[in-house]
């Protein structure tokens, strides 16, 4: 017998009445839930398009370099595309990770730390990404011409 | 030990207990003590329906219902009680609907009704649709609905608490309390399973609603937890048990397993066939055939098997045939029971008939009460503040054979009455002093049983009890078989005095509780057998092969079994009984001395079966006849 | 409330395992996305830095990782659609298992279309 | 120590034909703080069983013939009371609805308490948190206005609408199979939602808005990730995940 012995959590007083942790009602979880689905549906389009253009069409991953990226972002269409994708994916992903943190981080302190880190990452990444897309100069002065997209030389 | 004080304490959270709780907690401080979580009570297993003459689908009235109940019970029914039940049935069903019970509906949106065994139009003309139902889960819906209402009204529950003693102001077991003297209830002693702690509940009123005792038999539709606790507790305190020899064997239990297939199957058109494929009920009850009362059908089935016309390799069961019914109809009306056949026997009821055989199902007898659910301590005196309702009680509306669907009705009608009466009594009554150290008997018994180092195994004793009851006190009984059963029960009682449990811990010791429950079973079984031995006639669920006819001259009366000190032939109470017939004749046969067992010292308090100390003494109570003179029962 | 003592792994079926996969792929994609945005931001610094970093991606190991990431996205995306159907289509819960096999099928088809081309780019030299 | 029992009489085979017997080994996860301290451990028992035996019968043989201290709840023995949900070979099942022959008796059958509720002893868990969630969703008919004298009318179609969720026996098999419930035990759990569904879609009930509000909680329906373990586990065959989806949709319709 006793093939194996594993630890068991101590039992709280079985007579003690059970109390749910104080929680909040309201539509927040509802909206995020709907958002996950809506954003997911849109992201399918955006991400598949993105992947296709970057990895499949043309010469695939080999072709990616400054020139390629700059070439895309010179076009407001791709600018908009990537901007929406960035925002949707980041909100979707951050909210997804938030759920996961809520699920597994049981201690309140840990929960708080993880969520702060998550939101900080979100802000940094989204701000940075947005800035880059908008303030991006495809033909920076002084850069070697062979690295730049072809239209810079004109 | 903890002490609590409530105006009303209800023992049992089945249909009867919760129906009472709804009434009582509305009026006064009430606690419900149950050894199971309320929704796990066996009321939830009831399938077929609950009858009331709503006349939603065809002409019907409560008077016909009364007649059917009286006739179904082979005229041993107290007719005033049956009248009350049939009249209040209509409100009982409507009450449940208003509480939210999801009944099946007619095309007009009213509660649907279907046929059931023994329920007829115009005093037996033809089967009538009287049973209100929710598929084949009526009991489940009743239990859930009542629990939901209890949640709504914040009823206080003590779940997984076992009541182990009911405290009275006087000791009735001595047989010395004179008739007419005032005896009152003062509380109960309970055992908390989770911790092993003893709780003392002081109460002005106590309602016993602990359900049936089917586990005295081996093959039974009853839950493992239906061990006759309430009946045994009352009995040990000297309160009589009425008509316990009448036990119902339901015709259609899954063969070998005893799991019930509701009579609703036959109500919806299923047919019983023997091994030759013959619809044999045509021979036994030409007018209503498969829908005859249960005792008749069960006996007919047993008879077919005995005469070699059973089905199967061993020719030992009967077939319940649904194959001619529409699949959609089966799915809508009988989903659960067809599922049982699939799960437990691997039978597909659409295409194959289901093997069935009678199974111990329902105790017609129990703690005697008045029609206001007050417990009687003899033929006329009630115990102040003590009430009983449901299967553990005997009003008696079922007489010697209960009609299908009348029990769910019984628990609702008399559960409600008990709740109202107990609360009203408590509001007007004074506190009764508790006896000194009321818990010592229980504590001593528990401790002794728990710490006894070695001894008999509980399971062995129980197995043998169930086996002898199945062999000797089932559908067919004779003097010889019953004497055998009695001898066995007495021998087992002696062995019970030395049982030991293996689990020595305090928390959640179900081993210990099973041992205590075995004590209840032994007491109840003894009363069943003694009553059966004494009743030298055949009536309803009690069939004596040596006395195959009903004997109204000798036995048109209720049996009242008392626990009295050894050697005391007639208790004071019995002297007031109608004297016709062999008063206390069973007592001599019943004496443990007849089996030559040595007296064993008993533990404090009334304790478990105490062989050699107490005896079962019989008395009688007259049957109340209002409108219907006994006739021969023909269908 | 104390947690339950550890026991064996719960033997859930397709629904549970697809959820585990969805969760794992979701987190994978999220962390990749963080890195991806950061590295792409390097285009702001100078073409040289960007190309240098991107250059390090262009080795077979990273190529394989990239393939894994695409696999994760493809699964997460298709299964995401399955989840949306489970939520909003009345018969979704009934057919969730069938839909999972469709997801797996589409996943295989998509990857079959993508992988050869991608691996060719990765390993196929110039 | 592997203990073996060979009881002579089949507990349940009785009248129904001749049933072949076979040996099964039960590997039970035991937790007996009072006797062996706060460590759970495995113990194996071998018993002889018959073709129609349920796992509950085998457990009874263990308890009655080998070791009386093995503790579990049970009552009805045919799947209607909800007492004996446990984790059998890694899945939540009722012991009384699991036939041994369907459990592959060649290998030891592992039996553990349901997951996510505090274990009291062996297979017995503290059900209070479970019933607390049930009580929170107002599981009773809510109506306004005067009581009708006769029954409230309801068409068969209206009755059919919530039929599935009336079957619940509160066994907790679903809630304790849910990976989200295991995480912190705060999630209301599928059983509570099923019982809310039973009333939300009852044409006679007028409390739907309140119940939806309760389940709109952070720990309410939105925590469900449609893992379907609950549907898989429900011994009553209730389409639990579907019911949850219907509640979610009702909330969304209400919010937008
Ligand atoms: C399978 C089956 C099908 C049936 N079908 C029908 C039908 O279709 N129609 C019909 O009318 N009747 C039917 N019956 C009969 C009917 O269901 C029962 O007679 C009735 O439900 C009994 O209800 P009750 O409230 O008296 O007892 P129960 O529901 O059995 O409740 C007993 C309660 O007492 C508690 N209890 C017991 N002992 C103790 C103790 N020592 N301390 C504390 N608490 C204790 C238990 O926990 C439980 O809560 C059926 C019965 C069975 C077995
Ligand atoms: C490609 C299209 C995508 C679709 C269709 C999609 C769909 C979904 C859906 C429907 C959910 C909710 C699952 C649930 O509630 O059970 C979800 C969760 C999640 N998604 Fe996506 N998603 C996509 C892309 C992404 C991306 C790009 C990321 C990362 C940034 C991501 C990360 C996550 C995470 C972390 C979760 C939470 C998982 C969980 O809680 O189990 N998803 N996704
Ligand atoms: S929904 Fe099913 S699994 Fe869940 S408690 Fe109810 S009956 Fe049990
Ligand atoms: S298992 Fe849990 S996650 Fe949802 S589908 Fe069932 S409640
Ligand atoms: S014992 Fe009642 S459900 Fe298993």
Short recap of the structure:
Chain B: The active site is at 294 (proton acceptor). The complex is a heterotetramer of chains A (154), B (635), C (126) and D (256). Chain B has 635 residues and is an alpha/beta fold.
Task: Please explain how this structure is put together.
- The complex is a heterotetramer of chains A (154), B (635), C (126) and D (256).
- Chain A has a domain at 32-136: 3 helical TM bundles of succinate and fumarate reductases.
- Chain A is 61% helix and 2% strand.
- Chain A is built from four helices and one strand, in the order E-H-H-H-H.
- In chain B, strands 1, 2, 6, 7, 8, 9, 16 and 17 form an eight-stranded mixed beta sheet that branches. A four-stranded antiparallel beta sheet of chain B has the order 11-14-13-12. Chain B has a three-stranded antiparallel beta sheet with strand order 3-5-4.
- Mean pLDDT of chain B is 91; it is low at 571-606.
- Among the domains of chain B are: 252-361, Succinate dehydrogenase/fumarate reductase flavoprotein, catalytic domain (Flavocytochrome C3, Chain A, domain 1), CATH 3.90.700.10; 439-543, Methane Monooxygenase Hydroxylase, Chain G, domain 1 (Up-down Bundle), CATH 1.20.58.
- The termini of chain B are far apart.
- In chain B, strand 8 (185-192) and strand 9 form a beta hairpin.
- Chain C has one domain: 3 helical TM bundles of succinate and fumarate reductases, CATH 1.20.1300.10.
- Helix content of chain C is 79%, strand content 0%.
- Chain C has four helices and no strands.
- Classes of the chains: A mainly alpha (154), B alpha/beta (635), C mainly alpha (126), D alpha/beta (256).
- Chains in contact: A-C, A-D, B-D, C-D.
- At the B-D interface, helix 3, helix 4, helix 10 and helix 13 of B face helix 1, helix 2, helix 3 and helix 4 of D.
- Strand 1 (5-7) of chain A pairs antiparallel with strand 3 (39-50) of chain D.
- Bound molecules: flavin-adenine dinucleotide, protoporphyrin IX containing FE, iron/sulfur cluster, FE3-S4 cluster and FE2/S2 (inorganic) cluster (FES).
């Amino acid at each position: 017998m006793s093939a194996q012995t594993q630890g068991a959590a101590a039992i709280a007083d079985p007579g003690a009445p059970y109390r749910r942790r104080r929680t909040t009602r309201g539509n927040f979880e509802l909206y995020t839930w709907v958002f996950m689905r809506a954003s997911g549906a849109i992201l399918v389009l955006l991400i598949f398009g993105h992947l296709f253009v970057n990895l499949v069409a043309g010469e695939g991953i080999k072709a990616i370099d400054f020139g390629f990226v700059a070439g895309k972002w010179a076009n407001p269409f791709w600018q908009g595309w990537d901007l929406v994708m960035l925002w949707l994916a980041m909100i979707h992903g951050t909210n997804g990770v938030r759920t996961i943190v809520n699920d597994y981080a049981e201690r309140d302190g840990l929960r708080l730390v993880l969520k702060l880190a998550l939101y900080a990452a979100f802000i940094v990444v989204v701000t940075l990404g947005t800035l880059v897309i908008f303030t991006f100069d495809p033909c920076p002065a002084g850069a070697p011409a062979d690295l730049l997209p072809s239209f810079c030389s004109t | 030990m903890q002490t609590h004080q409530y105006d009303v304490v209800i023992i049992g959270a089945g249909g009867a207990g919760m129906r009472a709780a709804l009434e009582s907690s509305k009026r006064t401080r009430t606690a419900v003590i149950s050894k199971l979580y309320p929704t796990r009570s066996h009321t939830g297993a009831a399938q077929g329906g609950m009858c009331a003459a709503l006349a939603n689908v065809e002409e019907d009235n409560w008077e016909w219902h009364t007649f059917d109940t009286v006739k179904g019970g082979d005229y041993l029914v107290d007719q005033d009680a049956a009248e009350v039940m049939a009249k209040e049935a209509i409100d009982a069903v409507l009450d449940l609907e208003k509480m939210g019970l999801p009944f099946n509906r007619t095309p007009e949106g009213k509660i649907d009704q279907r046929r059931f065994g023994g329920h007829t139009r115009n005093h037996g003309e033809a089967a009538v649709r009287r049973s209100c139902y929710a598929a084949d889960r009526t009991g489940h819906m009743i239990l859930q609905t009542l629990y939901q209402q209890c949640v709504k009204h914040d009823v206080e529950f003590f779940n997984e608490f076992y009541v182990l003693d009911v405290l009275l102001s006087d000791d009735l077991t001595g047989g010395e309390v004179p008739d007419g003297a005032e005896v009152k209830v003062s509380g109960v002693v309970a055992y908390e399973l989770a911790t092993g702690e003893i709780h003392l509940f002081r109460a002005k009123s106590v309602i016993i609603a602990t359900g049936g005792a089917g586990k005295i038999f081996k093959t039974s539709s009853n839950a493992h937890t239906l061990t006759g606790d309430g009946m045994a507790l009352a009995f040990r305190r000297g309160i009589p048990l009425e008509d316990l020899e009448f036990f119902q064997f339901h015709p259609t239990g899954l063969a070998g397993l005893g799991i019930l297939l509701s009579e609703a199957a036959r109500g919806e058109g299923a047919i019983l066939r023997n091994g030759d494929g013959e619809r044999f009920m045509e021979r036994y009850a030409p007018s209503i055939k498969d829908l005859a009362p249960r005792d008749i059908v069960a006996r007919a089935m047993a008879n077919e098997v005995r005469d070699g016309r059973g089905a199967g390799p061993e020719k030992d069961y009967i077939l319940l045939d649904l194959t001619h019914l529409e699949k959609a109809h089966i799915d809508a009306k009988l989903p659960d029971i067809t599922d049982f056949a699939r799960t437990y026997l691997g039978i597909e009821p659409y295409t194959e008939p289901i093997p069935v055989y009678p199974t111990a199902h329902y105790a017609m007898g129990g703690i005697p009460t008045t029609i206001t659910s007050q417990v009687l301590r003899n033929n006329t005196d009630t115990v102040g503040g003590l009430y009983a309702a449901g299967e553990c009680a005997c009003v008696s509306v079922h007489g010697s054979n209960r009609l299908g669907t009348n029990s769910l009705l019984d628990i609702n009608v008399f559960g409600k009455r008990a709740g109202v009466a107990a609360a009203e009594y408590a509001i007007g009554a004074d506190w009764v002093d508790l006896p000194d150290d009321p818990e010592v008997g229980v504590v001593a018994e528990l401790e002794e049983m728990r710490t006894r180092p070695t001894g008999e195994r509980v399971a062995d004793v129980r197995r043998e009890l169930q086996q002898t009851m199945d062999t000797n006190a089932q559908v067919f009984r004779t003097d010889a078989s019953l004497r055998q059963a009695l001898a066995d029960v007495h021998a087992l009682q002696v062995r019970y005095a030395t049982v030991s449990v293996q689990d020595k811990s305090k928390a959640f010791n179900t081993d210990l509780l099973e041992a205590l429950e075995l004590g209840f079973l032994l007491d109840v079984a003894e009363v069943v057998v003694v009553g059966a031995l004494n009743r030298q006639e055949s009536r309803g669920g009690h069939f004596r092969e040596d006395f195959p006819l009903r004997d109204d001259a000798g036995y048109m009366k209720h049996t009242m079994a008392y626990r009295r000190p050894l050697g005391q032939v007639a208790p004071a109470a019995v002297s007031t009984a109608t004297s016709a017939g062999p008063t206390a004749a069973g007592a001599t046969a019943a004496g443990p001395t007849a089996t030559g067992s040595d007296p064993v010292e008993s533990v404090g308090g009334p304790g478990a079966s105490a062989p050699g100390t107490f005896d079962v003494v019989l008395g009688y109570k007259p049957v109340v006849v209002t409108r219907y003179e006994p006739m021969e029962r023909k269908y | 409330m104390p947690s339950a003592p550890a026991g064996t792994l719960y033997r859930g079926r397709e629904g549970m395992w697809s959820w585990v996969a969805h969760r794992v792929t979701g987190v994978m994609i999220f962390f990749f996305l963080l890195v991806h945005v950061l590295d792409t931001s390097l285009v702001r610094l100078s073409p040289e830095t960007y190309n240098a970093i991107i250059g390090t991606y262009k080795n077979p190991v990273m190529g394989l990782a990239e393939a894994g990431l695409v696999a994760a996205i493809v699964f997460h995306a298709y299964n995401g659609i399955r989840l949306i159907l489970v939520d909003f289509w009345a018969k979704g819960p009934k057919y969730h298992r069938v839909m999972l096999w469709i997801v797996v099928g589409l996943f295989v088809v998509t990857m079959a279309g993508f992988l050869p081309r991608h691996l060719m780019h990765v390993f196929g030299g110039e | 120590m592997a203990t073996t029992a060979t009881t002579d009489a089949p507990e349940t085979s009785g009248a129904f034909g001749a049933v072949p017997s076979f040996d099964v080994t039960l590997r039970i996860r035991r937790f007996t703080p009072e006797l062996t301290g706060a460590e759970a451990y495995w113990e194996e028992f071998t018993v002889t069983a018959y073709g129609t035996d349920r796992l509950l019968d085998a457990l009874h043989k263990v308890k009655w013939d080998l070791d009386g201290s093995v503790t579990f709840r049970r009552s009805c023995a045919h799947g209607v009371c909800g007492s004996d949900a446990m984790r059998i070979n890694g899945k939540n099942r009722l012991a009384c609805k699991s036939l041994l022959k369907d459990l592959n008796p060649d290998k030891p059958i592992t039996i553990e308490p349901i997951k996510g509720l505090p274990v009291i002893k062996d297979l017995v868990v503290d059900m209070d948190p479970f019933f607390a969630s049930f009580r929170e969703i107002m599981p009773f008919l809510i109506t306004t206005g005067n009581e009708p004298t006769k029954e409230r009318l309801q068409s068969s179609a209206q009755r059919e609408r919530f039929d599935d969720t009336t079957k619940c026996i509160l066994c907790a098999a679903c809630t304790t199979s849910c990976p989200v419930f295991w995480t912190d035990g705060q999630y209301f759990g599928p059983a509570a939602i099923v019982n809310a569904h039973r009333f939300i879609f009852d044409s006679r009930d007028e409390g739907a808005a309140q119940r939806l509000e309760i389940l709109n909680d952070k720990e309410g329906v939105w925590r469900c990730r449609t893992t379907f373990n609950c549907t898989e586990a429900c011994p009553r065959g209730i389409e639990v995940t579907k019911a949850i989806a219907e509640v979610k949709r009702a909330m969304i319709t209400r919010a937008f």
